[in-house]
Specification:
- By secondary structure, the protein is an alpha+beta fold.
- It has seven helices and eight strands.
- Strands 1, 3, 4, 6, 7 and 8 form a six-stranded mixed sheet that branches.
- The N terminus is likely disordered.
Length: 208
């Protein structure tokens, strides 16, 4: 979902930061062997019906998850008449993995910015978010990485990123609170200095 409302103009430019990349493709045969050992240590029989192909499937998933698409972005469009709008892109739901317990976390991402002569192709927001989610993560770092990369791509700091996460490490272990949610917010430029613009973003982001 994309929402636009009017806001004052913005300036400033920065270079695109180099994204921190996850490790390249893994040794799936070795990982499958380790999963086989884990199943045995957990009291399972890796050779029984239902488990015979599990180690290979798990290894293939790890390899795919840790090899997300490149976040390279080159699709910006000149739109000088849109200077001063607030553009919000929401509904970006994706999965990452908590690096503390290696359990999934479901992340709902909303990003907003004020165009300054150019607009970023909408699908690029999702590609960038998926790139940084495809690794062992913490939500706080993910939010900052997404913000910093968008700052470089868009060329200024009038950007806000809000992430709302459900963490299985809190829902299915530890305190086991299914309804617990974690919200992180990273803002820059006028989103940090203009309370009206900030409130507009927060209000619209909550409605995504």
């Amino acid at each position: 979902m994309t929402t636009s409302v009017t806001a004052p103009e913005a300036t400033l430019s920065t270079a695109v930061p180099e994204p921190t990349r996850p490790a390249p493709g893994i040794d799936t045969d070795r990982v499958a062997g380790l999963i086989t050992q884990l199943l045995a240590e957990l009291g399972e029989d890796p050779t029984r019906d239902g488990l015979t192909g599990t180690p290979s499937r798990v290894a293939a998933w790890w390899n795919a998850f840790l090899s997300p698409d490149d976040a390279a972005v080159d699709t910006c469009f000149t739109e000088s008449q849109l200077n001063g709008q607030l553009v919000i892109v929401g509904g970006m739901n994706l999965w990452s993995l908590c690096e503390h317990h290696m359990l999934p976390m479901s992340l709902q991402v909303t990003a907003g910015y004020v165009p300054d002569g150019e607009v970023l192709g909408l699908s690029k927001f999702g590609r960038i978010a998926r790139h940084f989610a495809g690794r062992l993560q913490v939500q706080e770092r993910f939010t900052r990485q997404l913000f910093e990369y968008l700052t470089g791509v868009i060329g200024h700091e009038d950007i806000a990123v809000r992430v709302r996460g459900t963490h299985l490490c809190m829902s299915m272990r530890g305190v086991r609170m299914d309804a617990a949610r974690t919200t992180t917010l990273q803002v820059g430029g006028r989103f940090a200095s203009d309370p009206v613009l900030s409130q507009q973003f927060l209000t619209l982001a909550a409605a995504q």
